[in-house]
Amino acid sequence: MADENWKPKIIAIICNWCSYAGADLAGGARIQYPPDIRAVRVMCTGRIDPLFILKAFQDGADGVLVSGCHFGDCHYLEGNFKAAKRMFLLKSVLKNIGLDDKRLRMTFVSASEGAKWGSVMTDVVKTINELGPSPLKEFAR
Amino acid sequence: MAEVKKYEEPRIGVFVCHCGTNIAGSIDVKAVMEYARTLPNVAIADDYQYMCSTPGQNKIAEAINEQKLTGVVVAACSPRLHEPTFRNATKAGGLNPFRFEMANIREQNSWVHMHQPEEATAKAKDAVRIAVAKASLLEDLIPKSVPVEKAAMVVGGGVGGMQAALDLASAGIKTYLVEKTPSIGGRMSQLDKTFPTLDCSQCILTPKMVDVYRHEGIELLTYTEVEAVEGYIGNFDVTLRKKARGVITPAEAEARGIVGGGCTGCGDCATVCPVIKPNPFELGMAPRKAIYIYHPQVSPLIYTVDFDSCVKCGLCVEACDTKQAVDLEAKDEFMTVKVGTVILALGYDIFPIEKKFEWGYKNYDNVITSLEFERLICASGPTGGHLIRPSDGATPKKVAFVLCAGSRDNTGVGKPYCSRFCCMYSLKHAHQIIEKIPGVVPYIFYMDIRSFGKMYEEFYYRIQDEGAKFIRGRVANITQDPVTKNLHVNAEDTLLGRPIDMEVDMVVLAAAIEPTAETEKTRRLFGVSCSQDGWLLEAHPKLNPCGTTTAGVYLAGVCQGPKDIPDTVAQAEGAASAASIPIHRGEVELEPYFAVCMEDKCAGCGLCVNQCPYQALSLVEKEGRTVMQVTEAKCKGCGTCGGFCPGGAIWMQHFATPQIIAQIDAFLLGGEQ
């Protein structure tokens, strides 16, 4: 498994109002972070069906990041609470199927936290690098 | 969804932007464009220096016509910046604007991977592939138009809120001005003079207060707070709590059938009131009765009962006599008003500077804040405009002004930001004592003097010429002589490079400012974000400084960030203009990201109904079975129901499950493995 050239494939599903805006702010401020994460934008983390995340792992993702607004800041009042509950349950599902639950992470980054977005990116990539390639990778497709 | 036109074969046009060197500096744009040509469904791929320019936008329209495109992808900056631009370009080419998808290769790529061109280019290719996958599945959507209520609300009755309300009302819009204290006027009414013109603050403010009070288009709601907010742009239902005032106006008296009754502001009630409390308007430096007016120039001139300290002896009721204005049994009242747009002008509080214990505020009598100085130097203040030492009533001859008291403070105790007007008002304070006290010497301890506004630098020179002494250094600590109550100011003069221990009669701390205690609650009611320091977040710092991310809610004044009176009034006028646009237009378009129930898949379990934060979903009987139904006017498109439906029966327009799965698959399965 330990391929020298392995680069993690990480997908971030992030909300339009807080984390996506925070990521844009990080860009404006030229905060540098590792380039291993690809973002998919949704209006709210509440939109995220746990099946999206299972599909990503099934497709061989090494890590999935879900990022939304801070509690109480949700543009739609409580979508992030619901997302957090779903991710909590989903983590136990991941454990049951033998996947390290650290491969799924939920963070809360506001529209003004560009620097925090940068450190989240760095930290997620570091975590996935330590975990190595997903054991589901060879079954992908 | 049934009527949505589905194309047999998607034909996508991809356009990659150089953005000068913003993108092309770290991403090989040509390689990304060439790569796009190899992707399934891509009919044409092109690149251009600036896609947002007119020639760039024309390329899109031309390609749609020539290539019979079914979808458009632009790889450029953030969709939060230019999505509307390219949607319009897509529409100009004759395609539904919602068939456009953006790949963010600037804010979330070239700018954050500036020194990794290979990785950045690979990431840009992935982003284009992901966007093409989504664009291949996009459908025609029609934005929904909703009517806009021809009324507005301004929350906060300081100078910013008053200006915004005046502008809105003068533009013919019914405006509710909501103020939590018993009077409009705000912080400005506590100030003595204003820099750099030295206008008397009250003299320029009170005419505006009168204008607000008299304006027939403004419904002034003082001693009132926002309790709840429902709805969206054009149709906000705002519930207000009118706090029990205990005193009725002449109009209210008339409504109750009391002829010639109601409060006339005579003050007979306060004369007989036996309860004496510190006056918050005078920052506790003067007494106040339990029935009071907020300050001498209040508008409206109506007394208020402080029910927290009132003993209900009834002497005021007797004193009021036939006017019958006092009602000690009054209760809070609630009212709901419908408005199209809202301006938040929530103002600021003074940072509790006693937290910086090294300066001894609240421990040493003769250490005061600048706002207390304003009240002491003001002719209508507790000392009639005589600056005195709180310890002994003597006139100070040596006064130290400590700037950046809690501002520009990275210790974690104070505020990291510049409070922006302290330099200027401290210069004004120096001028005021030189003018009033013969032989006085003001010593100004500063880090930098920020005199950035029109005629501000000139004012700074003037104060230097008048004899104020400037010492560049942050004050380390202040100690008190226990006998004389004089203060020792310890600092380093960084220009001379030597420590200073200066004995002065009085210290004035130019304390930092912070958001008001109610700001957090109010912003959450309106769904407005804040920055790390708690100030409300504008939609864009440069291009939309009055707007917020909640459509129909605008910002004015210090609640958006520290600013002085001219800037506050200017922003208030900007916010009023912005808030009047949807009202004058009469209708707004809402993005059509609604949930749609796919009735053939819906099992009618109803689990989604409780997920919706807006009560937009309900179960109905249709053709003999139960299915979910969406009330479009209530749906805001968050998709929380769609993320939960166990049967996958909810179609989130523009963020539908197949579209998102296609994006995930395109990233993980579509590229080079």
At the fold tier of CATH, the topology name of the largest domain in chain B is FAD/NAD(P)-binding domain
Quaternary? heterodimer
Q: What is the number of E strands of chain A?
A: 4
Query: H/E element string of chain A?
Result: EHEHEHEH
**Helix amount of chain A:** 25-40%
Q: Average pLDDT value of chain A?
A: 93
Largest sheet of chain A: 4 strands, parallel
Given as residue ranges, the uncertain stretches of chain A (5+ residues, pLDDT < 50) are none
Amino- and carboxy-terminal Cα gap of chain B: 36 Å
Largest interface: A-B, 56 and 56 residues
Task: Note poorly predicted spans of chain B.
Answer: 1-5
- The best one-word shape of chain B is globular
CA(first)-CA(last) distance of chain A = 18 Å
In round numbers, the mean pLDDT of chain B is 95
SSE topology sketch:
The complex is a heterodimer of chains A (141) and B (673).
Chain A: E1 10-15, H1 19-28, E2 37-42, H2 50-58, E3 63-68, H3 79-96, E4 104-108, H4 114-131
Parallel strand pairs in A: 1-2, 1-3, 3-4
Helix pairs in contact in A: 1-4
Chain B: E1 12-17, H1 29-37, E2 42-48, H2 54-67, E3 71-76, H3 79-92, E4 100-104, H4 106-110, H5 117-135, E5 144-147, E6 151-155, H6 159-170, E7 174-178, E8 193-194, E9 199-200, H7 201-214, E10 218-221, E11 224-232, E12 235-242, H8 250-255, H9 268-272, E13 276-278, E14 287-289, E15 291-292, E16 304-305, H10 315-320, E17 333-339, E18 341-344, E19 348-350, E20 367-369, H11 370-377, E21 398-405, H12 422-436, E22 441-446, H13 456-465, E23 469-472, E24 475-480, E25 487-493, E26 498-504, E27 506-511, E28 513-515, H14 519-526, E29 553-555, H15 565-585, E30 587-590, E31 595-597, H16 607-611, E32 617-622, E33 625-630, E34 650-652, H17 657-670
Parallel strand pairs in B: 1-2, 1-3, 3-4, 6-7, 6-18, 7-10, 18-29, 20-27, 21-22, 21-27, 22-23
Antiparallel strand pairs in B: 5-30, 8-9, 11-12, 12-17, 13-14, 15-16, 19-28, 24-25, 25-26, 31-34, 32-33
